[in-house]
Each structure stands twice: as structure tokens, then as C-alpha cells.
Backbone:
């Protein structure tokens, strides 16, 4: 054998060993993030099912979940996009930063959420209940947005479990409410309990990042890169989709919103387990790569691994969907029509899981490559398609039509993102063909 081949073989062996170490670390980090999500999201999954078991399908529960949908727009959609936007700031420079701008954004978001809730709860509840609804949604939205900075710091330092696990604090007010056998008119107390739990979550996350974040003016200000403003704008537009779907569901029979909420919560729990663990880890890796990685296969491996992971969770979700009728009976959903509706809606939503995960991965890739300015237009296209198709299909298929519109929208946006990344002007940076 030529002596020159030995250094080459040694380099290949070293690269393979290094790749194995990186892969092992990535798997470990995904497992940590997913474990946190399993612990934390279980409460959010069970909440609509427990309320259906307590009260059945009722208009007051529909109002309760409409209020929570408003909070989720700020606490979930906007907070997650803000987290994604802030992660690159911590991966580039992990010094302590002044997070006062995030606090101002959180207060503004909380005020908007509270006023929106007041316009809904003020019509259906007395002054005291409407005030508690409004204050609770303000706190939930505000704390959710404020937690974006500490969560981004934790992710950038490969601490993935805590952000998900702390959602489990919601178990305490939910359990207390459930076992106290309250009247349906006491739902505002449950919302207040959730607000207190979210406040405790923010306190824990802030304490965990006290060495990285502060509100002192003499520190460098925490700012998201300019490109991430497009990501936030796209998330705002895309986040209107759940609100839009629930608004359309309000025109259906009594309890339609609650049925769709229960099904969507179950699907969202599966989607969160599948995507947030992988998403938070890949975002950190992509932020460090920034399209300049020496190994041209790195992006392809991330893409293949994410796709395989999504197909695995698709199989798990379909299996869960097949067994749903038996589980639904445990929560008092015994009518065949409602059971079949939930099962069919869940399976249709689950079929969109690979598309949903691909949109998340491709949007992060576009962000780290400086292509985030295309995300706003893609979000507008996705929202328009969802609105039109859901409106046309709801009359005939009810919540099944809403699910189908959501699934098709995921694949449409993912396809448009792939086309944009594969275009000749971007191919050199994306390593995709």
C-alpha cells in the first residue's frame, strides 16, 4: 500500500470518529428536549379532555378555549419565533446581556392579548369573571413572551430539558381544579391558576439564566439579528391560522370548538414531541454552520435525519389515531359521531406531520442563510390557502375540513421553501439540489 494512503486513512478515521461523537451528542440533546416536552405537554393535552369529562360540550368551554387560543398565539407562536430569533445572538456571543427590550415586547403583547380577551369574555360573562379572564390571559401571554430570552439562552448552551419540563407546573392548578369538582361557572379560576403556574415557570427560567440575562442598562442590549424580524413577521401571520380555524368552527354546532380543540391539542402534543426536540437542537447547529460548513454533507444529514424522524412520528401518530375511540370513552366522549370525528380529524392532522416538520427545518435553514425575507410572503400564501380551503370545506366536512386545510397548507409551504432553497441563486449556499 502507498505510504501516502496512511495519512488519508487516518484523517477519514478521525472524521468518522468526530462525526460519531457529534451524532451521539445530538441524539442525547434531542432526547433531553423531548423528555422535557413529554413532561410539560401532558398537562396541555389532558386539559380539554378533562373539561369535556367534567361538563360535556358546552358554550362556556368554547369561550374558555377561545381565550386560551388568544394566549397561545402570543405564548406559543410569537414566543417560539422570538426564541428562534434570539438563539443566534447567544451562539455568536454568549456574554451577559440586557433583556429589557424583550420585557417591553412582552408587556405590549400581554396588553393586546388581554384587550382581545375582554372583547370576547365581556359579552358572555359578568364583570368579575371577565376581569379575571382578561388579567389571566394578560399574564399568560406576557410571561410566555418574556420566557423567550431565557429559553434561547438555555438552548444555545445545550440545556434543552428545563424549558419543556417547567410546563409541568400547570399540572398543579389543573389537578386542584379537577378534584375540587367545581361548577362550570368557575372556569375563570382555572385560568387564573394557569397564569400563576406560568409566572412560576418564568421565575424558574430566569433564575436558571441569571448569569446570562439582566435588565441593567450598562450591559450590551439583547437584540435579534435584523433578518429574524422577517421570521417574527412570518410567525405572526402563520399564527393567525389557529385563531382563524377556531373562528370558522364557531359557526358550527354547539361544542364544535371544544371538539376541534381536544383533537388539535392531541395532535399538537405529538407534533411538539416530534419537532421541538429536533428543532431546538438543529437550530443551534444551523446557527453555528451558517452555510459555511466545511463538510458539505452536514446539511443533507440534518435534512435526512429530520425527515426520517418525522416519518417515525407519523407512524406513532397513526397508531395512536387508530386507538382513539377506546381512549375517548374514558373521558365521557361516547357518541359514535363525535368519536369518529375526533379520530378522523386527528389522523388527517397527523398526515401533515412530515410537512409541518419540514417547514420548521427549512425556515430555520433560510434564517441562518440570510433568506428570511422570503418567509413573510410564504406565510401569507400559507394563511390564504388555509383560510380559503377551510372556508370551502367546513360546510360539508366540519372539523375534518379544517384538519385537511391545515395538512395541505403544511405541504404547500414546505414545497415552496424547498423550491426557494434549491433555486440557482441560493444553491451554492444551501448545498441542496
Residues:
Amino acid at each position: 500500500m502507498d505510504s501516502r494512503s496512511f495519512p488519508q486513512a487516518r484523517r477519514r478515521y478521525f472524521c468518522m470518529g468526530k462525526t460519531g461523537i457529534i451524532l451521539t451528542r445530538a441524539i442525547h440533546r434531542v432526547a433531553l428536549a423531548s423528555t422535557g416536552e413529554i413532561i410539560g405537554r401532558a398537562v396541555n393535552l389532558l386539559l380539554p379532555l378533562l373539561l369535556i369529562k367534567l361538563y360535556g360540550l358546552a358554550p362556556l368551554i368554547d369561550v374558555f378555549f377561545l381565550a386560551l387560543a388568544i394566549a397561545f398565539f402570543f405564548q406559543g407562536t410569537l414566543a417560539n419565533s422570538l426564541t428562534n430569533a434570539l438563539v443566534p445572538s447567544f451562539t455568536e456571543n454568549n456574554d451577559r446581556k440586557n433583556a429589557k427590550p424583550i420585557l417591553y415586547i412582552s408587556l405590549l403583547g400581554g396588553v393586546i392579548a388581554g384587550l382581545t380577551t375582554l372583547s370576547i369574555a365581556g359579552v358572555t360573562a359578568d364583570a368579575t369573571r371577565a376581569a379575571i379572564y382578561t388579567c389571566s390571559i394578560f399574564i399568560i401571554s406576557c410571561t410566555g413572551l418574556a420566557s423567550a430570552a431565557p429559553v434561547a439562552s438555555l438552548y444555545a448552551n445545550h440545556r434543552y430539558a428545563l424549558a419543556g419540563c417547567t410546563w409541568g407546573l400547570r399540572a398543579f392548578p389543573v389537578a386542584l381544579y379537577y378534584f375540587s369538582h367545581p361548577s362550570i361557572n368557575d372556569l375563570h379560576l382555572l385560568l387564573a391558576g394557569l397564569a400563576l403556574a406560568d409566572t412560576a415557570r418564568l421565575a424558574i427560567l430566569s433564575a436558571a439564566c441569571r448569569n446570562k440575562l439582566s435588565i441593567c442598562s450598562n450591559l450590551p442590549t439583547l437584540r435579534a439579528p435584523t433578518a429574524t424580524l422577517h421570521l417574527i413577521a412570518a410567525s405572526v401571520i402563520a399564527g393567525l391560522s389557529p385563531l382563524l380555524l377556531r373562528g370558522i368552527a364557531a359557526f358550527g354546532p354547539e361544542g364544535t370548538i371544544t371538539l376541534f380543540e381536544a383533537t388539535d391539542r392531541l395532535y399538537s402534543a405529538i407534533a411538539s414531541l416530534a419537532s421541538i426536540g429536533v428543532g431546538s437542537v438543529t437550530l443551534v447547529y444551523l446557527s453555528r454552520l451558517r452555510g459555511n460548513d466545511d463538510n458539505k454533507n452536514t446539511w443533507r444529514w440534518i435534512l435526512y435525519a429530520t425527515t426520517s424522524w418525522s416519518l417515525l412520528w407519523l407512524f406513532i401518530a397513526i397508531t395512536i389515531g387508530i386507538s382513539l375511540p377506546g381512549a375517548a370513552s374514558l373521558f365521557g366522549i361516547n357518541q359514535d359521531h363525535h368519536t369518529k370525528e375526533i379520530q378522523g380529524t386527528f389522523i388527517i392532522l397527523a398526515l401533515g406531520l412530515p410537512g409541518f416538520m419540514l417547514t420548521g427545518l427549512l425556515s430555520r435553514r433560510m434564517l441562518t442563510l440570510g433568506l428570511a425575507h422570503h418567509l413573510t410572503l410564504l406565510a401569507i400564501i400559507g394563511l390564504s390557502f388555509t383560510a380559503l380551503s377551510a372556508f370551502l370545506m367546513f360546510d360539508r366536512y366540519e372539523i375534518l375540513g379544517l384538519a385537511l386545510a391545515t395538512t395541505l397548507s403544511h405541504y404547500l409551504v414546505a414545497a415552496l421553501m424547498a423550491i426557494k432553497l434549491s433555486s440557482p441563486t441560493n444553491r451554492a449556499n444551501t448545498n441542496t439540489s
Summary: Residues 37 and 272 are 7 Å apart (CA to CA).
